[in-house]
Fold each of these.
Amino acid sequence: MMHTNTNLTLEEIRVQEKIKSEPARVKTDIEEGYCEVNVENLNFFYGAVQALFNVTIKVQKKGVAALIGPSGCGKSTFLRVLNRMNDLIPGTRLEGKVSIHGEDIYAPNTDVVSLRKKVGMVFQHPNPFPKSIFDNIAYGPRIDGLKDKAALSEIVEKSLKGAALWDEVKDRLNAPALALSGGQQQRLCIARALAVEPRILLMDEPTSAIDPIATQRIEDLIRDLCADYTIIIVTHNMQQAARISDYTCFFLQGEMIEWGKTSILFTNPEDQRTEDYITGRFG
Amino acid sequence: MITDVFKRGFVIEKKRSEWRSYELIGLWALRLTLVLVLFILGVIVFDIVSKGAGVINWEFLTQPPRTGMTEGGIFPAIVGTFYVTLITIAFAVPLGVGAAIYLNEYAVQGKFTRLVRMSVRNLAGVPSIVFGLFGMAVFVKLFGFGPSLIAAGFTLGLLTLPVTVTASEEALRTVPRAYREGSFALGATRWQVVRTVVLPRAIPGILTGTILGLARAAGETAPILATGAAFFLPHLPDSIRSQFMALPYHLFIMSTQHHAISQVRPIAYGTALVLLSLVCLLNLAAVLLRKRYRNRIAKGL
C-alpha cells in the first residue's frame, strides 16, 4: 500500500511482502524478566492519518536503544507512545498492545501520571522552566508532595550529580535555569527527569539543538546513565546512534524496518532500505 | 506606547534614502494623522485639566457636596466608585480567569469552544446601557438586590467579563507548549501543570488585561444608572446593599441634570479630572505591572 506506486521488481515486492508479514527480526531472545518495553502490533493514528504501522518491538532492560530514520518516519511518535504524551494531542488513536514491565499502559485503569513518573522524557529543545536551577530539579518531587527542604536538597544534589552538572552549578542553585548554556540546560532537563526516579528515560533528539562539545558530554552522560536506566533515544544522527546505542531500530514511513544489535545493524543490515539509509543514500 | 510610535518614526526617517517621492507624500499623510490624533487628545486633556484643576483641593477630595450640590466636594462619589470597583473585581476576576482557564486548558477544542469564544467576544460589543438594563432586570429585580453596590458591581463585572476572559485566554496561550510538555512528562496532573507552570507565566497578561477592563468599568455610567448609583446621598454606603454615589454618574448629573448647570460647571470639570486621573492611574498600574513581570521573565525567574 505504501510502495505500490513505485516500480518494483517482482523480487523486491516479494521481499517487501515478507518483511511486512513478519514484522522483522524482533528480538525474541529477550527473556521475560529482562524485557522492559514490549510493543506488539502497534498502529497509531493522528485523526485519519496513520503514523505507525504494525510496529512490534521488545526493548531490553538497561542499555541504550536508538531509533533512527528520516524525518516523519514515526520514531518520535513511537517514543511518545511510551509515556502517553500523545494523549495530549486531540484526535489521536492507538491499536495494539504496549506494555512496560508487563503492564499494559493503555489499559483503561492505567494511571498516566504515575506512568510518566516511571518513564521520564527529555525533549529536543532544552525546556527548563523559568525558575531557579534548584526549583527545576525539585519540581517533580514537589508535585509529588515532598516539602521537606533537606530531602529536596539531597535529591537536587543527587540528580545534578547524576547528570554531571553538579560541579558547574553547585554555587548558584538559585540562579535562573535559563541563564545556563544550551548544553547545560539539556543536562539540567536530564537531571530534572532523574529527580523523579524513573526507570526508563525517553530522549527525543536530545542533542540536535546543541553544539558538538556539549553533545559529546551528553553522549558520555547517556553511556553512564544506561547502567542504571533503560534509555530509548530518537536521533537523526546515525553516527550518534552507532556511538552510544546497544540496539538500533530503523523506522521508515511509519514502519519498523529493522531492529537489532547496533554493531550488526550498522555493519551488516538485512534490509536493503536500512542499508540505503545508513549509507546515506536517502534521508 | 507613544515613545514606541516615535521610535518607529525615527527608524523610517533613517531609511529615507529608500523612499520614492510619492511614498514620501504618503508618509507625510500618515504622520499628519498621528499629529491630529495627538492634537485631539491634547485638546481634551488640556480642556479638562485647565478647567478642572482650579477646583481641586483637599476639601474637594474629602468633603461631601453641600448646599444643593453647588458647593463642597465629591468625596462620596470617589468612595462609591472605589467600592463598586472592588465588587467588580471580586465578581469578574475569578469568573473570567476561571472561564479562561477552563476554555484554554481543559475544554476539548472544537466547534463548541469556538462558539463560546465568539460569543464572549461579541459580548464586548454590547452597548453598556444594555448591560445596565440587564443588571436592573436580573440583579436588582430578579435576585432582589435592589439598587445597590452589589447589583451595580455585578453589572459592571458582566461588562468587563469579555475583556477579562479574552485577555486571560491570550495570556494563557502565550505560555510555551514546551513548559506544559515538560511538566506533564514529569508526571504532573493537569491542574498541577496549570498551577505551577502555566499560571505563573500567564499572570502578568491576565493582570494587565483585567486592570484595563476595570479602568473601562470604573468610568461607565450607563450600567450603574439603573442598578444603584444615586443622585445624592447624605452618608456613605455602609453595606453592599446600599446605594452609592459614583464619579461618572456624578459627572453626568453635574453636566446635564443639575438645576444650576452653569454654576456647577467647575465642579463637573473637577469631577471629570478626578475620574480621568483615576483611570490613568489604573492604566499606569497595568503598564508598571507588565513591565515588572517582563523584567522578571527576561531574567528567567
Note: The first strand of chain A starts at residue 35 and ends at 46.
Amino acid sequence: MRPVDHAEASSHFIEAKAHLEFHDRRLWDLRLKRDRQAHRIPEWEELRNLASAIKEHTLSHLADYLERFEAQAKSNGAHVHWARDAGEHNQIVYDILSAHGARTLVKSKSMLTEECDMRPFLEARDVKVIETDLGERIQQLDDEPPSHIVVPAVHKLRGDVSQVFARTIGSEPGNNDPHYLAEAMRRNTRPYFLGAEAGMTGANFAVAETGSFVVCTNEGNADLSANVPKLHIACIGIEKIIPRIEHLAVFIRLLSRSALGSPITQYTSHFRAPRPGTELHIVLVDNGRSQRLGMQDFWYSLKCIRCGACMNTCPVYRRSGGLSYGATYSGPIGIIIDPAFDIRKYSTLPYASTLNGSCSNVCPVKINIHDQIYKWRQVVAERNQLPLVKKEAIRILGKVLSDPRLYRAAISATGLAIEHLPRFAIYNWLNPWGRQREVPEPPKQSFRSWYVENRGQP
Amino acid sequence: MTARDAILAAVRANQPAPAPPVPPVPLFEPASLSLLEAFQNSLASMGGKFAPAPGAGGLDALVRSLFPDAAVICSATPEVGGTRRLDRNTEAAALADVDVGVVRAAFGVAETGSVWLSEAELQVNALAYLAQHLVVLLDPHSIVGNLHQAYHDPRFKTARYAVLVTGPSATADIEGVLIHGAQGVRSLTMALVRPGAEPARRPNSPRH
C-alpha cells in the first residue's frame, strides 16, 4: 500500500481559493468562540486538570472499569457485546439487525463506525443505512468520508451542498439557501425516523458506576434514532469509560465549549436502560485501543474526547482540509492516532504540523499532542519510512547544526544566496516551502557577528 | 477465548502504571448573578424563548396563544390539557403529527440554560423530538447553579433515559449558518411557572 501523500493531497485543496479561505476562517472562528467560553470560566484550567486526571486514572484501571460498566449495563437490561476489531464489530451489528429483521438503520454520527467502515459492510448485506446528522448525511450522499470529527462537511460551501442534494434527494437545483437545504433534509429524513426498525448512536462517555452512556448532539437526531425505533444499538470504543456520574460534569462543561464554543450541546442525553418493550444493545469495541494502551509514549491519545479543538486551531489542518489526511481521523489528533493503526500508510502525517504546540494548549484533556507528533516522527525515521529527499535533508541539517563552523558558514551563504540568486534557483522543487510563500528577507547581519562586533569574542 | 476475555486480558496486560484515584470534584459554586437571571441569559444564548406569565385562561390558553395555528397539542403534564392524550404506552411514531409538545421539567441549570427531562416527565421520550415545537414548564425555584450541582441529582442514577435539553434542535453544518429546527423541535419556549395550578380539563374525545 502506498503511503498517504498529505502534501500532494493538500495542494488540490489549496487550489480551490474560495473553499480554502472559508475553511480557514470558519475553523478559526470556532477557535475564537472556544476562547471566549473558556475565559468566562474561572476554573477552566482546573477543569482541564481534572479531566486529564480522571482519564489517566480510568485508563490505568481500564479493565476493572470495563467489567463494572458491563455488569451495571446488564443489570439495567441492556445486552453487551464485545468486538476485538472492525470486522467483529460490523458482524455483531449485522447479526443484531438481522435477528430483528431490521432492513433500515437510522444513525447518528459516530467516528467509531467510520473507523470500522461499517456502512459499506451493512449495505452489501441489504441494510439501508441513513446518516441523520446533517453534515454526515451530506458526506454520505456525496460518497465522501467526514473531513472533520465535529463538523463533517465543513470543507463544502453551500453551492456544493445544493448540488449534492439536487442530485440525491431532489431539492431544487440552484437553490443554495442553507435554510432551504436544511429543511429539505429534515423532510427527507423524517419518514426514515418513523419507519426504521433500528436506530444507532455512538457515545461520548460511558459511566462505569451506572452502566449508562452519554450522547451529545445539537440536531436532535441521536435522540430520534434512539427513541423512535424499538431497537437501539450503541457502538462504544473501550476508551470512553469514566468512573462516576459526577465526573460527567467536568467533561460536559469542557466538551462543547472546546468543540463549538457553546456552553453545552442542545441535547446531552443519558441512556441507562431500554424503554419498556424495546431492546438496547451496547457494542464495546477495541480495534487497536488495547494495543495503543501499551505504547509508552502514545497511550495518552486515548484520553481524547473528540472535541476537534486541536483541528480548529491547527494552521496546517485549516489550510489543507481533513480529506487530505486520507484517514478516519485528521488534524493533530489524527496524526497521533492514525500511525498507531498503520505506520507505513500514515508515515507522512506526523510531518503535517509546524509543532507550534497550539493543539496541546487548547486540548481539554491536556494531551501532549505536539510532543507525540515529534515522537511519531522519530518512530517513522527509525522504521525507515522517510522519503529519500527528506532523509537526506535531515542528515545534512543534522551535520550542519552540530558543527558551529559549518553552521556559521551556512548562515552567511544562505543570506547571500537569497539576496543574489535568481528566483528559479530558490523557488524550485527542492524547496517545497517556497511554493506558496516568499522566502523571508535575510537579516543584514547575523546575531553572532553583531555580538562579536559589539561585545567581543564569546 | 471469547472476544470479551481477549480484550480484557489485553487491556490488563497493557494498561499503564496505576494513576492516582481522582479526588472528589469540587462544586465550583457559581458567583453573583441570580440563578434565574443567569438561566434566562444562558437559554436565550442557546436559542430558547420565554413565554409571558399565564393570564386568566391559565396554561392551556397560554399555549394556545403561543401557537394559534397548532392543530395537535400534546401534553405530558396534567397542567395542560392540549388536544391529544398521551400516556406511557403511546407509540412513539404516533406523535409524528404533533405540532406542539408540552412537558414539565424536573429542574433547570443556570450555567447552561438546560432543563432536565426523563421518561417520568416525558411519558414518551420522542415527544421532545417529534413535535414541531416544545413548550417546557419550569419552576423557577428548581434552578441549580451549574452542571456539577445538576449531576448530583440522584435521578441520573435511576432514570432509564435522562436528557439535558438546552434550546431547540440546531445545526450549523452548512457554512456555519445557524438554523433552528434541524431534526428535532423548531422552537423551545420556556414557561416559568410553579407547579400546583389547577389541573386543566382533559379533552373529552381525543382526535385519533
Note: DSSP finds 22 helices and ten strands in chain A.
